[in-house]
Amino acid sequence: MPVSKRNTSSSRPIRSILLSQQTGLLLVIAALGAVLTLCANKTVGGEQVNTFFNPSTLLQTATDASLFAIMAVGATVVIISGGIDLSVGSIYALAGVTMAMVLRSLGEMSPEMTVLAGLTVALGVGLLSGLVNGALVVGLRVHPFIITLGAMWVLRGIAFVTSKAESILVPSSLTETVKASLGLGETLSPIPMLTMFFVTLLGAIFLSKMVVGRHIFALGGNVEASRYAGLRLGRVQIAVFAVAGLTAGIAAFIGSSYYGAASCADATGYELYVIASAVVGGASLQGGKGSAVSAMLGALLITLIRQSITTLELNQNYEWIIIGCAIIIAVVLDQASSRLTAKRLAQSASDNKLDDTPSPEGAKTAV
Amino acid sequence: MAGKPIVEFERITKRFPGILALNEVSVAIQSGSCHGLVGENGAGKSTLGKILAGIYPYDSGRLLVDGKPVRFSSPLDALKAGIGIVHQELAFCENMTVAENLCLEHLPSYGPFVSRQKMIDRAKKLLAAIDADIDVRLLVGQLPISQQQIIQIAAAVGRGARVIIFDEPTSSLSQLEAERLFALIKRLQGQGVTSIYVSHRLPELFALCDTMTVLRDGRHVATKPTAELDENSLVEMMIGRRLEEYFPTYLEAEPGEEMLRVENFSSPGKFKDISFSLKAGEILGLAGLVGAGRTEIAQALFGLDNMASGRVTVAGKQVRIDSPSKAIKLGLGLVPEDRKRHGLVLSMSACSNMTLPILHRLSRFGWIRNRAERSLADTFFQRMKVRAPGVDALIAGLSGGNQQKVVLAKWLSAQCRILILDEPTRGVDVGAKAEIHALIDQLAREGAAVLLISSELPEVLNLSTRVLVLRHGKIVGELPRNQADQETVMRLMAGIGSAQMADSAASKPELQ
Question: What is the largest CA-CA distance in chain A?
C-alpha cells in the first residue's frame, strides 16, 4: 500500500508542471487581455465603446494569430526533435503562389472543386518541401539549421521566379469559404481560428498518442540512446520536417485565401515569429521538451502583444523593440517558474521521503 | 598519523529535488589521514564530498576547515581554502592542451599575449611535483581518463590543496591504472596531504584508507578505523541488513542450442579476428583491461559499427547486422556501458524508456495502446523490483540501480534471446547489484544467451559459464569456469606472467 500513496504523489507533480506551464501562459494572456480591455474603454460621440473587447477585434486578433499558431505547431514538433526549421515562411510563400497559379490555370470550377484543388496543392507543396528538407538533413548529414537556412532562400526564390514577382489573385470562392461567417454575423469569420484549434488538437494528439510522436521526444531527448533503442532516426527526422512543411501549407491555404492573393513576398520573416511562438510556449531548443497547445498559446501571446500596440495607441515604430523584449522576458519567466516548481517539488518529495524512507528490504517487498 | 581534525562536518543537511540527500551528517576528518566515504549509490557519500569541494552548497549545519566555519560558493573558493577534488564530471576544456588547462586560472603572459613557454614550464613543474610524466602539449581530450585524473591532482596540489577528495576515481580505470593511482595517493599522503576517498569498491577502500565513514540513505552510520572493520561488517552497515550471498549459487547446467556464432569478426583499430560461440543458457564473460576492445565488440554486434566485418550467425542463420533495429529484430539486446548517454532518454518517463524499442508492438496503426503499454510496464517493473514512485515517474529521478533495471526491462520486454550486458552493474548500489546478478543468472537458466562484459573480475568470474579474455583487441584466452580464477585471468588480461602481478592480485582482499 505504500505504492498507491507514492503513485499519487508522483504523477501529480508531472501533471502539475505541464498544467502550470500552460495555465501560466493562459494567465498572462488573460491578464494582458484584461489590461487592454480596461484601457480600450472610450467614449465616441457620447457612446461607450470598447476598441478591444468586441467580437470583431477579438476575432481579428485570433485570425492574425492563427497563421503563426498553425506553423508554430509544426515548429514545436521540429524543436522537440532537437532540430530547427527556418524555411517555413518560404514554404508558405511557395505553397500560396503555387496554389494561386494552379487555380488560375485550371480556370472556372465549382466552389467545392476549387477549395479541394486549392487545399490539395497548398498542402501538397508544403508536405513535399518538408520532405525534401528532411531528406536533405538525413541524407547529407548536415545540421537542420544550415539546410533550412538554404531552403529558406531557395524556396522563396522558386516562388519568385515562378510567380515572376507578381501578386496572384486567388479565386473568390476560396476567399468566401475561408471568410465564411458560419452564422456569426456579416463581419465575423471564424474559420482561421477554428483551423488553428483543429491543427493544435491534431498536433497534440500526434505528439502524445502516436508512436512517431514518442519517437520524436526520444530523438530530441537523447539521440544516442534512441539509436541504441533501435529507432529509425532518419525516418523520424524526415517525418518531423514533413509535419512542419505541412503546417506551413495549411497556413498558406488559409492565409492566401483569406487575403485573396498570394505573392512570393508573403510570410517574409514568419519563421522567426513561429520559432518565437514555440519557444515562448516553453519548447526547449535543446530538444525533448515542448507541446502543441503551448506553442499555440505562445503565438496568441505574441499576437496579443502586437495588438496591444494598436489598442494602447503606442507608436507603431516601437513594435519590434517591444516584441523582442517580450520574447526574452517570456522565456526568462518560463525558466524561472519551472525552476521554482522544481524546487517546490523537491521540498515536498523529500518531506514525503522522511516518513517513507525506502530501505533495501523495502525494495524487495514493495512495488 | 592522527592529528587534529582538518575538516569537520557538523549536522550537514542537503536536499535535492525529490531526495533528502544528507540528513544531519556529522563527520570529522583527521589531518594527514586517508578517509574513506562508503555507502551505496544514493547514500550521500558523493554529495558530502561535493559539498566540501564547493560544488554544492549545503542547506543547514556547519562546515569547519581548520576549526573555522566556511561556506564555499564555488570549487575555486574551496581550493583557496586548500581543498581540491578529483572528479570525473568536473571537466577540462578538452579542446585545449594540458598546459593551458593547468594554467587556465592565471595564464602567464606578456602584456595581453599568452606566454607559451612560461605556461609549458609551469605545467611541467606542477606535474613534476607529483612525479607525473605527461606531455603538456597534448590536448586534454586525447588523454585517457586516468591521465586526466592525474592532471586534476596536479592542479589541485599545485594550488596548495591540503585535502583532496577522490570521487569514485577508479570507476573507469583499468586495474593497472588504478594501482598507479593508489601509489600516487599514498605518496601524497607522505607529503602531508589528507585524502578523502569516496567509493563503493571495498577492496580499494581497505587497501587505501585508515578510517572509514559509512553513510546510508543520507544518514551517518559509523566512523571507524579500518583496522576495526572487515568486508562483511562494512557491507552490513552499508545496506543495513545481513548479507546472505553476493552472487547467486551457480548451477551446472547443460547449455542448449547455439544462439550466436561469431567468426573472424574484425573492425579496424578496434578488434581483430574475434571468434566465439554462445549457446542458450550460457553466460559468456568477456574480460579485459579498459581499451581491450570489449565495448567495441558489443557495439559492433549490435550494428553500431559499420566498419566491422566477419561472419555472424544468429540461431543458425548467417546475418548482416548493420543497425540496432536489425539487431533487435534478430533478438539481440544491448545494455550499454554508459547508461546516461546510450541507455536512457533522461527527459522521458521510466515507462516510455522501457517501451521505446517495442512501441510498434504496443500500437495499432501508429497509435500507442496506452493500456497495453502501462500493463506491460507494470508487469516488468514488478518482476524487476524497480523501486520507483510509479511507471510514469521521470527516469532521471530514479537511483542508478533502478535506472539500470529499467534498461534491463527494456530488453526483457522486447523478448531478446541474446543479451549483451556491458558493465551491467556500473554505478549501481550493492543491493541492486545483487538483484541484477540474480536476474542475469535467472535469465540464463530460462534459456537466454548472455554475453557479459565487466571490469569487475569477481562479477565475470562468478557469473560466467565461460570466460574469454581480450587484450589489445584480440582473444588471448578462453577459460572454462573451473579454470578461470582471478590470477590467471588478470595475467592474461595484462599480458604478463610476472610474480609481481600475481602478488598484487593476491594481496587484494577477495570480494566474496
Answer: 80
Residues B353-379 have pLDDT tens digits of 999 999 999 999 999 999 999 999 999
User: Of the candidates B204, B239, B274, which is a domain's last residue?
Assistant: B239
Please give the Cα distance from A222 to B345 (Å, whole number): 5
Please tell me which residue of chain B has the smallest CA distance to A80.
Answer: B347
Q: What is the DSSP string of B148-206?
A: HHHHHHHHHHHTT-SEEEEESTTTT--HHHHHHHHHHHHHHHHTT-EEEEEES-HHHHH
Which of B206, B239, B272 finishes a domain? B239
In a domain, B392, yes or no: no
**Residue in chain A lying closest to B352 (CA):** A214
Residue A72 in grid coordinates: 508554430
For the stretch B52-83, pLDDT in tens is 988 888 999 999 999 899 999 888 888 888 99
Give the pLDDT band of residue B40 (cuts 50, 70, 90). confident
* ipTM of predicted complex: 0.81
* CATH at residue B186: 3.40.50.300
Q: CB A211 to CB B360 under 8 A?
A: yes
Walk me through the domains of chain A, giving residue ranges and CATH numbers: 50-346 (1.10.3470)
Q: What percent of chain B has pLDDT over 90?
A: 36
Are B142 and B267 found together in one domain?
A: no
Which B residues, 333 through 362, put their C-beta within 8 Å of a C-beta on chain A?
334, 336, 341-349, 352, 356-357, 359-360
- Structural domain range at position B58: 5-239
d(CA B438, CA B447) in angstroms, rounded, equals: 15
Whether residue B302 contacts residue B420, with contact meaning beta carbons closer than 8 Å, is answered with: yes
Q: How many Å lie between the alpha carbon of A231 and the closest alpha carbon of chain B?
A: 6
User: Is residue B360 a part of any domain in this protein?
Assistant: no
